[in-house]
DNA sequence: ACCTGAACACCGTTCAAGT
DNA sequence: ACCTGAACACCGTTCAAGT
């Protein structure tokens, strides 16, 4: 053996840069390799294959979403809004890469961080324990759908911030209703 | 000139079949051409290029969503549920193709049909006119996000019907609140 | 007008070889 | 252990040619 010229981390970093600059279509084993000044085949030892590279990217995206640390003890409305904004920023930076998050199991390890943060926010709002996971899923699904729509261009021509405000207000309405126990049926 | 061997309609039909059977990755100009027993280059006259082919596909998907005719005068809850189910069926049939709908402007011609149907449903529920478009957008965004999550595998391991039920109930709650005018301030 | 055939510049990936 | 180089079976698309 001899010192490694590149690492998995470097490969993912380079790919993320490439994706942000030129989109997912430009993410090719050969282009990533060129960016690292290495042969395409050199990547295979570090990421397995193209699919492995893509998996590594969404893993990274998840991790980026997972850092709302700042908004920790503030009120639940601010926490939820901050997390939603976080997701939107990522979606705008990697518009087509973002779509791959829909192919990632929501229950996975990497998604634990943000989910627990949302749970805490919902608990502090008074949402009953047994409704936490369903409500969290509803919220994240809406946020993902919104971010994908915004980044993908589905919302082109609309006042996106106004739409976001409307959605955020409706979500808060649902959380408050859940806290009152209106979801019982 | 001489009689056309293939038409745009046939090309899209063949591609949709191919996509349903083998996924978007298998949708290649060459594979579509082979299915029609024609040279790859023969497609270009009918769909422009690969992007044109893809555009034609999402156009078709939109059209498939647009046919909830049956549930016309029944109650608004049934109409909304039927439309959501419609979208979910399409997403399951074309899991990766479905993601392309996020890149399609929501305000486009092809989306008019389903949107007007939702408007009617919301009106009959008592939702004020000025809130129609925002609420419809919130609903469709959630449904798209849900369908993409289900089809993409994000919801793997969950009781998806139960999740859908939960979401549907929350949506109805929002519609009822809007009808009462709770969204004002 | 519509289709074919050969060609070009790309892909991901294998395999044997170098250090 | 890590990287290279040549090769293979694919892509989308151009261009000139056939009917």
Task: Note the overall shape of chain A.
Answer: elongated
Low-confidence stretches of chain A: none
Can you count the beta strands of chain A?
0
**What percentage of amino acids of chain A are in beta strands?**
under 5%
What oligomeric state is this? homodimer
Can you walk me through this structure?
Chain A is an all-alpha fold. The first copy, chain A, is 67% helix and 0% strand. Chain A has nine helices and no strands. Chain A is elongated. The N and C termini of chain A lie far apart (65 Å). Chain A binds a DNA duplex (19 and 19 nucleotides) through residues 1-6, 28-30, 38-42, 44-46, 49-50.
Provide a concise account of the structure shown:
2 copies of one chain form a homodimer. The first copy, chain A, has 185 residues and is mainly α.
């Amino acid at each position: 053996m001899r010192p490694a010229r590149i690492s998995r981390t470097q490969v993912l970093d380079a790919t993320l840069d490439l994706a942000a600059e030129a989109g997912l279509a430009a993410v090719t084993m050969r282009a990533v390799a060129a960016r690292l000044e290495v042969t395409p085949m050199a990547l295979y030892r570090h990421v397995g294959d193209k699919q492995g590279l893509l998996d590594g990217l969404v893993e990274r995206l998840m991790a980026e979403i997972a850092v709302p640390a700042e908004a920790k003890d503030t009120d639940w409305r601010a926490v939820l809004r901050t997390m939603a904004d976080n997701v939107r920023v990522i979606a705008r930076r990697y518009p087509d890469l973002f779509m791959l998050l829909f192919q990632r199991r929501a229950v996975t390890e990497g998604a634990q961080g943000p989910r627990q943060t949302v749970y805490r926010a919902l608990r502090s709002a008074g949402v009953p324990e047994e409704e936490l996971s369903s409500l969290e899923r509803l919220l994240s699904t809406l946020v993902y759908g919104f971010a994908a729509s915004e980044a993908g261009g589905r919302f082109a021509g609309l006042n996106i911030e106004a739409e976001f405000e409307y959605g955020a207000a409706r979500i808060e309405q649902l959380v408050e209703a859940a806290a009152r126990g209106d979801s019982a049926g």
